[in-house]
Amino acid sequence: MTPLSAPAKINLGLRVLRRRADGYHELESLFLPLDLADEIRVAVEPASRASVRLRLAPTPLSVPDGSENLAVRAALAFLEAAGLACRVDVELAKHTPVAAGLGGGSSDAGAVLRGLAAHFPEALGPEALASLALELGADVPFFLDPRPAWVRGVGERVEPVCGAPSLALLLANPGVGLATAEVYRAFDALHPDWKPRAAPGPALDRLAGGGEPLARWVENDLEAAALRLCPAIGRLHQRLRELGALAVGMSGSGATLFGVFEGAPAARAALVEAAFAPPLWGRVATTRESR
To answer: Does 9 participate in catalysis according to the annotation?
Structure first.
C-alpha cells in the first residue's frame, strides 16, 4: 500500500470578498499546513467493477464511514472520472478532528486523489484532477499539493507562496462540531448587505521579518457567525489570550481556534496550564514553512 500524509491546515486569516448570485462565497485566505496529519494507505487491485473499501484504525474520534467519508467519495469519483474498473482499499488512521475547521476530511480526499493519480499517471490530467477535487469540496484542491498557499475564489485558485513562517500554535476547540453550511447561513444573516471587498494580499516577507502585525493576519470574517452558533468560542478566545498567545484566530468555519506562541515550548506550557477538560480539547502544532 502507498503511504500518504494528509496534513491538517489553519487559515491564517480568512476574508469573504463577495457573495455570488448562486449563493457561493468567494474568499481569500492564507492556508498553512500543519504537522498534525492523518495517515492514509491506498492499494489498488483488479476487479470487474469499481469499488472502494475503507478500513479505519481505532480512534476516539467520530469518523464517517462508507460513502459519507470524503476519502471514499474521492476514490469513487476518481475511478468514475477515469473510467477505471478496479477495487481501491483505503486504510485511514484519523488524527485530525472532524468538523473542526482544520480541513481533515478534505485533506484525506486530496491524499487519496494524489495516491491514485500517482498509481494511474495517464488517467487524469492536472486540470481534470483539480476540477474533480473542487467538486468534492472547496478545500480539496489545496490538498492536492499541501504547502503554504493563497486560496481564492471558491477554492479553485491556489497560489503557493514563499516566505510563509513556521508558527508554534496551540489549537483549542470547545468540543463542538460546526457545519460549514450552517456557518455561512449565519454569516449571511448577520451581513445581508455584505459589500464586495478587494483582496488585500499583504506581503508575506514583511510578516516573516516581523514587520507585519500578526493580528492583521488572523482576522476571520466568519468568526462572528461561528460565535453566534457556538458562544463557547468567545470564552475560548479569551482563554488563549490569558495563556499568553501573541494572536488568536479561528481556522476555517470553526470551531477550532489557534493561539500563536513564541515557540513550541511556550505553546506546550500553555496547554498544560489550560488543563482543558472534555469536551474541550487542545493540542500543540506547528505550521510547515514554504519549501
So the answer is: yes
